[in-house]
Amino acid sequence: KEINGELYEGKRTLMINHAWRQANASERRKLKGFLGRPRSARTPADIAWVRRLIERTGAMKHARSIAHAMGGAALYEFDNYSAGLHKGRDQTFIRNLLIWVLRRSH
User: Fold this and answer.
1) What radius of gyration, in Å, describes the C-alpha atoms of the chain?
2) CA angle 21, 17, 15 (to 5 degrees)
3) Mean pLDDT of 21-33
4) What are the φ and ψ backbone dihedral angles of 3, each rounded to 5 degrees?
């Protein structure tokens, strides 16, 4: 993936949503303007500002928390669903993939 690609594209991610909810009125206006511009009009300075807003508002930590909870729920459901099935190579691979997602740090 491109570094900051989702920011350049103006995607309304979980982090952007959280930052929006935590931002003050001035920051919301600036973020709304940023999101309303086409990708070609978003500058590296704009991206740096949005990244600082994400950091200041705890949006990254919030998104990681949600992702971890969803990954844990997926692992729980996978284990329940596959409890009576033969423990083959494919099942082990999928379970290990879920565990990897939960443990990764980026």
Assistant:
1) 18
2) 115
3) 98
4) -60, 130
And the tokens for 51? 């990244």
pLDDT value of residue 21 = 98
Distance between CA atoms of residues 18 and 50, nearest Å: 12
Amino acid at 13: T
Using alpha carbons, select from 31, 100, 48, 45 the residue that is nearest to residue 71. 100
Tell me what pLDDT residue 26 has: 98
Residue 83 identity: A
Does the pTM surpass 0.90? The reply is no
DSSP structure string for the chain: --TTHHHHHT---HHHHHHHHHS-HHHHHHHHHHHHS-GGG--HHHHHHHHHHHHHTTHHHHHHHHHHHHHHHHHHHHHHHHTTS---HHHHHHHHHHHHHHH---
Map tokens 């500058």 to a residue.
Answer: 43
